[in-house]
Amino acid sequence: MPRPQKHPHALFSLCPENQLAEQVIQEPRNRHLLETLQTEQGETKLALNVGFDIRSKSRSARTLAILGRGDDADIILHGSKISKIQCSFEINLDTKVVMLFHRSFSGSTQVYSTDRPGAMATPFEFPRFRQVVVMDNINEIIEMGGSGPDCVRFRINWHQNQSETMAMIMNERSLPQN
């Protein structure tokens, strides 16, 4: 059963933006991450919590969650173009910001911001870095496993503003201190 609100240790939620992402929400192995979210339009929607409550299978304190179709993933994705380990959300210990790391060899993870109407998604192509900052209004749309209707698309819904997020990260006891 989904939580009626965010987990107190969650930094953000992954909100499904298409049918393939809805299938991820319905995946039984993701059930422990479900929350009920109120949209800006007043609708109730299911989403996946991401934060310090997950305790990633990576066993790295800085990893919030690994997404993919394999057994080593914390959030299970579906699709023939999804890698066993597609991407991960991790804390940069120096800057205390959340980063999205692209882990797939296929280059099928893309990000973009909704504040740029009509903007194209940015793929992680060689020689670009395989990591980007994600925060409110920056790279808040993630597409994995293809493009257009063939991708799994999520919107990141932050639970607090950026300064509150950074304070929460700095106060997290499980992270190594610099």
What descriptive keywords fit this protein?
178 residues; mainly beta; 7-stranded antiparallel sheet; 5-stranded mixed sheet; globular
Rg, rounded, reads 15 Å
Percent strand: 25-35%
Helix content: under 10%
Number of helices: 2
- Oligomeric status: single chain
The first-to-last residue Cα distance is 38 Å
What spatial order of strands do you see in the largest sheet?
2-3-1-12-11-8-9
Strand tally is: 12
Order of helices and strands: EHEEEEEEEEEEEH
Biggest sheet record: 7 strands, antiparallel
Q: Which of globular, elongated, flat, extended, rod-shaped describes the shape?
A: globular
Note poorly predicted spans.
none
Structure description:
It contains 2 helices and 12 strands; from the N terminus they run βαβββββββββββα. The protein has helices at 19-26, 162-170; strands at residues 10-16, 34-38, 44-51, 63-68, 75-76, 87-92, 97-102, 109-112, 122-123, 131-133, 141-144, 152-158.
Q: In brief, what are we looking at here?
A:
This protein is mostly beta strands and 178 residues long.
Write the layout of secondary structure elements.
Blueprint: E1 10-16, H1 19-26, E2 34-38, E3 44-51, E4 63-68, E5 75-76, E6 87-92, E7 97-102, E8 109-112, E9 122-123, E10 131-133, E11 141-144, E12 152-158, H2 162-170
Parallel strand pairs: 4-5
Antiparallel strand pairs: 1-3, 1-12, 2-3, 4-6, 6-7, 7-10, 8-9, 8-11, 11-12
